[in-house]
Amino acid sequence: MVEPVGNHYVVARPVYSENLFNEEHEKLHRYHKTFWDHLKLYFRCSPQRVKKIALGLFPIVSWLPVYRFREWILSDIISGINTGLVAVLQGLAFALLVNIPPGYGLYAAFFPVLVYFIFGTSRHISVGPFPVLSLMVGGAVVRLVPDDIARNGTSTNISAINEEKVMVAASVTFLSGVFQLLLGILQFGFIVIYLSQSLISGFTTAAAIHVVVSQLKFMLQLPVPGFNKPFGIIYTLESVFSQITETNIADLVTSLVVLVIVFVVKEMNDRYKAKLPTPIPIELLVTVLAALISHFVNFEEKFNVAVVGKLEEGFQAPVAPDVGVLQSCIGDSISIAIVGFAVAFSVAKVYSIKYDYPVDGNQELIAFGLGNIVGGSFKGFASSTALSRSGVQESTGGKTQIAGIVSAVIVLIVILGIGFLLAPLQKSVLASLALGNLKGMLMQFKEVGILWRKDKYDCVIWVVTFLAAVFLGLDIGLATAVAFQLLTVVIRSQIPSCTVLVNVGRSNIYRNRKDYTDIYEPEGVKIFRCSSPIFFANIEFFREKLITAVGFNPLRVLRKRNKALRKIRKMLKKGELQVTPKGLICMANHTQESDEELDNNRIEELDQPTSMTDLPVHIDWGADLPPGITVPRVNIHSIILDFSAVSFLDFSAMRVLQKTLKEFVRIDIDIYIAGAHEGFLDKLERCAFFDEEIKPSMFFLSIHDAVLHILLKKDIASSPKLKLAKEKGSSNDYIIIPSNGLRSRECTVRLLSPV
């Protein structure tokens, strides 16, 4: 019963152990499904399930019939046109990161959008090339088709080598799509939880650094080979600076001018976005202007600048992936699949929360997997979502993926009809546009200081991820970062927070005794909390902390007591001790004997419970013992283990815990476990944890229940400090009139049988 009294509440209920509570309230024994039950349920076939799977696999069937045509169509068209123009330019620019001709970036900006329109669940993200993924694909391309081969060949050979690069990029993309599709079918959408926000932030920041370095050769027009190996970024910078005197000044000036213009206008877009009806399409304006100037001034002939050149018109026939490339790029494809999904899903989640609609991680994997399979078949490269492009689609009024279809139409127009207008565009302009989209990623350096103040573990993860990805490469760096992140989890769980609790405010609240002054610690009672799962890796740490908290090693005390009993029996047999009403009296000078002699090669017997049945008197270990017999004093009689934060206990840890608890029980210390979660007791019973020494009755609902039980048990066993008046109508319910100050109100408790 709970009675509110102002801003206080008064609770009157019995003191409950787990068993008593379950018996009194008739706990149900539920059937827990096994793995096979879940498997049968997953593969069960019914009309309702088929309908649900079909609607889940084709989300378009759910939202397209209820599309608000009159309200949304104009916004989606405007948004799609803006997004499509950005997608064209980013497709051309990010193709340079893949080390393939720019025109193939248009395929990566077209096909995945069509697939996502049918299979995707997010309404606002813009699907297409993403700089980090482009760079990762480019790493595989450089490794399998080195740049130095292309530099030393004829135009015919260069064309063949470019085709080989395109094939590598397409094959890697196809395989990453297969991995994403398999993960989606197998319901592995949860895999994204292993990439924390700190890891993603550090990784994308490192990728931005790689993008900057990789674009230097286009901005300076230097023949820099690719180095897709550990410390490749250092080799690249070395190659750039060794040829710095050969820089094409026209490309350098163009790049710097474009960068300044893009950064300034983007800053204006951010600062005045509330006043601007739509962001200024600076990438489009710069591209058109640069192409016109290059064409009429004839930059290619006058200044020998590198230009985009003739783009492929129309679509090429789909091709099968190269089996040899697939075998060589399994690791690259897995990394690309996971990173692409993680980035896209995190962006989709932001918009889903903002506009209150669900996003299915497994279906997103299927959508991106199919998109990459189709895109790779048509010689595109890996797609995800670019933050800037999705921001344009959402900020210009995009409501659904109809805007994505409109953007795909814009890309289609460029592919089929007007791509030739971009032929005189300098590659250095595309490189500058690629760098202009990295501002958000590079600004993530600010997070280091914030994370250091908030969570040092996350800060270390960010720094390690960044350094590993920068110096070891994106693929090895990602694997290193994930391994290090999991290692931090192991370290934190292997070294859990263990504290000694006390009563605060004379209520039912228990907190760390180091944090408060108004505390009450029941005499002879230690309350110990472990705030972590207990498993094979941290059980020894748990044991050591528990021994430190109580102030003695129970096994050492037990062995000392058994050795003392051996000495007493030996002295009684020799007549050196005599039994009197006051206890044992030494009748002769005792000669010190070594522990080795007393052990008599029976060390295992010292670990058994003490037995005094053959002695004429009971030994009080807290009183004075005969001369020559010393045993460590134990000043506690009860230990309460707070397991409210222990989510699981594995079998290895269970064995050690059982052994430790038995050591305490054998030196007459009562053990209680409080706050264990549902199913904990059942698991212990299944694993044969309980026996004559360790019993289920040691489990209590809360710390306060255990403390009250201990106080009552000790007060009744000795001269009571509490006055007990039997309550009418009940044989075992009593009213406590406190004299120790623990409870500020009278409360009803139920006495339990001893453990």
UniProtKB/TrEMBL annotation:
Keywords, sorted A to Z: Membrane, Transmembrane, Transmembrane helix
Keyword flag Transmembrane: yes
Protein's cellular compartments: Membrane
PROSITE patterns assigned: SLC26A, STAS
Membrane-crossing residue ranges in chain numbering: 77-98, 104-120, 127-146, 166-192, 199-220, 240-264, 276-297, 334-353, 365-382, 402-423, 460-487
PANTHER family: SULFATE TRANSPORTER (PTHR11814)
NCBIfam families: sulP
Protein name listed in UniProt: Chloride anion exchanger
Organism field: Eudyptula minor
The organism's taxonomic lineage, starting at the top: Eukaryota, Metazoa, Chordata, Craniata, Vertebrata
Gene transcribed to yield this protein: Slc26a3
